[in-house]
Automatic annotation (TrEMBL):
Residue numbers annotated as active site: C246
Residues at which phosphoenolpyruvate binds: R48, R85, N198, D199, R209
EC number: 2.7.3.9
Top-level lineage group: Bacteria
Name of the molecule in the record: Phosphoenolpyruvate-protein phosphotransferase
Cofactor(s) listed: Mg(2+)
Family indicated by similarity: Belongs to the PEP-utilizing enzyme family.
A GO term, aspect molecular function: kinase activity
Residues given in the record as Mg(2+) binding sites: E175, D199
Main localization category: cytoplasm
Transmembrane segments: none
Biological source species: Streptomyces chumphonensis
Subcellular location: Cytoplasm
Length: 316
């Protein structure tokens, strides 16, 4: 029955009144591409490149090896969009040869973009490999940095992309509340934002994303998190730029409608969630999504936010 409900639900993501919300896939490498294409993904919204760096635990993969793997992913989406995230090492993704071993709080330490700015050679090699991989392909390449805290981070990343000769759009992930609060300033340096709601929840609620004891704070429906999504999306709109979501939040069909209502411009998720998100989005108008978003933001807890949005979207 579930399957039947999804049949016919192909094509680009959009609300019932035709407001387009590109639905993209999160992938970890070429092995995930097939499922993404089969699910009808319009491209890749988050290519997690960490996995490639785990192959040999003692040093980064060579430029040739990286270029080969990146090309396999880029080739799968001719004319489509592929958003590649540069290496996100540290905290929940430690890499022995890059991640400092002696930090008392690795989630608050040298991780993500911070690691790359400490190892500019690693960043440069990755960006050069990406430039080579994209050569001659009609793909629409976007490259983004994880864990951008402020405008200086965004500028350092954009400078590194330019000096590697990369012809792509450069973006910043919003995973740190400071970046959401000052999104307009970050957008002076980059062309798009992508909300990493998993880390954004972790840092907003000071709750380790891997710790069961504080798991309730990882709920992406929490109104404070929705506020930060709204700030980011509004800033992007004011700057005429895009703001997607690539964290787990995007894979919840109901929340996908709320994110759309908050002004998010694309949603990226694991391929298996894509048909459900597409089908749910297609049932509601943009105005309904906006009303659901307002109701969710007015709630006092994640649970109430979900209930309030559900009530609006089911026409209660
Ligand atoms: C996130 O933090 O939401 C995100 C998309 O990145 P990751 O889960 O890989 O940290
Ligand atoms: Mg993250």
């Amino acid at each position: 029955e579930r399957k039947a409900a999804l049949e016919g639900a192909r094509g680009p993501g959009a609300t019932s009144d035709g407001h387009k919300v590109p639905l993209l896939a999160n992938v970890g490498g070429p092995g995930d591409v097939r499922a993404a294409v089969e699910a009808g993904a319009e491209g890749v919204g988050l290519f997690r490149t960490e996995f490639l760096f785990l192959d040999d635990g003692s040093r980064p993969p060579s430029e040739d090896r990286q270029a080969e793997v990146y090309r396999q992913v880029l080739e799968a989406f001719p004319e489509g969009r592929v958003v590649v995230r540069v290496l996100d090492a540290g905290a929940d993704k430690p890499l022995g040869f890059l991640t400092p071993a002696d930090e008392p709080n690795p989630a608050l330490g040298v991780r993500g973009l911070r690691t790359l700015l400490d190892h500019p050679d690693v960043l440069h090699t990755q960006l050069t490999a990406l430039a080579r991989a994209a050569e001659g392909l009609p793909v629409y390449l976007e490259v983004m940095a994880p864990m951008v805290a402020d405008r200086a981070d965004a500028r350092a990343f954009a400078d590194a992309c330019r000096s590697a000769g990369l012809r792509a759009k450069f973006g910043a992930m919003v995973e740190i509340p400071a970046a959401a609060l000052r999104a307009r300033s970050v957008l002076q340096e980059v062309e798009f934002l992508s909300l990493g709601t998993n880390d954004l929840a972790q840092y907003t609620f000071a709750a380790d994303r891997q710790l069961g004891a504080v798991a309730r704070h990882q709920d992406p429906w929490q109104p404070a998190l929705l506020d930060l999504v709204a700030f980011s999306a509004e800033a992007a709109k004011a700057e005429g730029k895009s703001c997607g979501v690539c964290g787990e939040a995007a894979s919840d069909p109901l929340l996908a409608c709320v994110l759309t209502g908050l002004g998010v411009t694309s949603l990226s998720m694991g391929a298996s969630a894509l048909p459900y998100v597409r089908a749910t989005l297609a049932k509601h108008t943009l105005a309904q999504c906006e009303r659901a978003a307002a109701a969710a933001r007015a709630a006092e807890s994640g649970e109430d936010a979900r209930r309030a949005a559900q009530a609006v979207l089911s026409g209660e």
